[in-house]
Design goal:
transmembrane, 3 domains, transmembrane helix, 17 helices, membrane, four-stranded parallel β-sheet, 470 residues
Length: 470
């Protein structure tokens, strides 16, 4: 599966193709419904087609934005086409409600957003999208978008690729044809996957339609077939480092495969002053907008906490966390646990079905309302809107000793939401924290304003479908 790197973030090409297909289908559905309801004569329609254009584009882009927010395109991996269509229908219903409300408050009659128009366009869109997606995935399952990959190496690094990137639910856009062991290399890959290429790698590659060679050798100081690799590259075969291949396919940085030199010389891990100013401006604007929208909800939350636990019950819970460059600060949240949750004074991981959580706390945690007071942390500059979640000092000390590169997550400001929160469930153990760190490192390496905006949009899915909440 080919990739396009947009502002340092890897995007699967089939997802882009699917998005373009959906865009075309939604535009066509809107135009077709407008023809039947407002024109009915082909000559009249051809003459005034441009009057429908802005309404059609607005309708289409709004639906696709909501689709991204509800995780439509990623849902196909775990839920299949049926799950993808259910989320698409939900997205279209939300879009219809938003457009109807827009017309109601604006009173503007220039838009083609009548009840009949929106209903007919949406019915046509659902059926058309379902048909075209079924055709698209039929070709996808036949391997049209999969790249044939050859791995050079069969040791520890190659085994990581074999085990981590071949799970059924992973976005496999590739087929690993086999592994070529290096001389004197301890073989860690199953014997059935090994290839015997005694002579020329280029000849094997060309004879077997290999599109990419992944170099996953444990010790590069030993002899590499440099001439063969260069010959393959000169005839158009992509040659890529194993760590970069892993990062591209999994959207995380492999802790077991990287070295400090890779972090220094790789493309990423750099934040300029201009980017810092842009991010800070974005944080302030986004925080003020969210505060303007959410303050009634925050007042209602305060009232509910008081009603459940009494007028004297504290509403805000402040806790010390580790932020940028290892400096400590206090993060603010709506209190969701009992006041004696840590009466022994010991820090305790939050668990699933935690008995310390109050009834109000259980709800506000699931829909992430408890995080809203962190808006003020962003406004004062302790946090960003997007970044790694801040952790408590006692856990940071423990995890830094046991997990390599853990302290690197403090190179950027912590965030209310982040890439790891989207891609991984709640971390309640050291092993979970190790896995989550790999996603945090991917974000730190590839951070950009576009990736921040994408994370914010997709955070809607986390709230709606309660992903990763405790």
């Amino acid at each position: 599966m080919a990739h396009i790197r947009v502002f340092k973030h890897y995007v699967h090409l089939p997802f882009i193709m699917l998005g373009l297909i959906d865009f075309t289908v939604l535009m066509a559905s809107f135009y077709l419904s407008a023809f039947f309801l407002f024109f009915t004569h082909i000559g009249l329609f051809v003459e005034y087609w441009d009057q429908v254009l802005y309404s059609a584009i607005f309708y289409t882009l709004l639906i696709q934005l909501i689709m991204i927010a509800t995780g439509v395109y990623e849902s196909q991996i775990e839920e299949g086409l049926s799950g993808m269509m259910l989320r698409s229908i939900l997205s279209i219903i939300i879009a219809i409600a938003m457009l109807s409300f827009f017309v109601y408050i604006s009173g503007d009659t220039l838009w083609y957003f009548t009840k009949g128009q929106l209903s007919l366009a949406s019915v046509l869109a659902v059926f058309s999208i379902g048909i075209f997606r079924a055709i698209f995935f039929l070709f996808a399952h036949e391997g049209l978008f999969k790249r044939r990959v050859l791995v050079l190496g069969a040791g520890h690094r190659a085994r990581n690729l074999a085990t981590d990137l071949t799970a059924p639910l992973d976005r496999k856009g590739f087929d690993i044809v086999g592994y070529i062991p290096m001389p004197d290399e301890e073989v860690k890959v199953g014997r059935q996957h090994l290839l015997n290429v005694p002579n020329n790698i280029q000849q094997y590659v060309e004879a077997n339609n290999i599109e990419e060679i992944v170099v996953a050798v444990d010790d590069r100081r030993k002899t590499l077939p440099l001439d063969d690799l260069l010959n393959c590259k000169m005839v158009g075969i992509n040659v890529i480092d194993g760590s970069t291949f892993y990062e591209r396919e999994s959207k995380k940085v492999p802790l077991e495969m990287i070295q400090p030199s890779w972090m220094i010389f790789s493309d990423g891990f750099n934040v300029g002053r201009l980017n810092a100013v842009i991010r800070r401006t974005f944080d302030i604007i986004a925080s003020l907008l969210l505060l303007a929208v959410s303050w009634p909800l925050m007042l209602l939350t305060i009232l509910c906490i008081k009603l459940e636990e009494g007028i004297r019950a504290p509403v805000i819970y402040s806790q010390e966390r580790v932020g940028l460059n290892g400096r400590s600060f206090f993060v603010h949240k709506f209190r969701s646990m009992r006041t004696d949750a840590e009466k022994k004074g010991e820090a305790i991981w939050a668990q699933k079905n935690d008995t310390r959580v109050t009834k109000v706390g259980e709800f506000i945690r699931k829909v992430r309302i408890d995080e809203l007071p962190q808006i003020f942390n962003v406004l004062v500059g302790d946090m960003s809107f997007v970044g790694p979640r801040p952790e408590r000092p006692v856990f940071v000390n423990q995890l830094s000793e046991n997990i390599p590169y853990y302290s690197e997550r403090h190179r950027v400001k912590p965030g209310i939401t982040g890439w790891a929160q989207l891609c991984f469930a709640y971390a309640d153990s050291e092993e979970d924290s190790r896995e989550k760190l790999q996603y945090d490192l991917y974000y730190i390496k590839n951070q950009s304003l576009l990736l921040d905006i994408l994370i914010l949009i997709q955070t809607v899915e986390v709230v709606l479908f309660k992903k990763g909440s405790r």
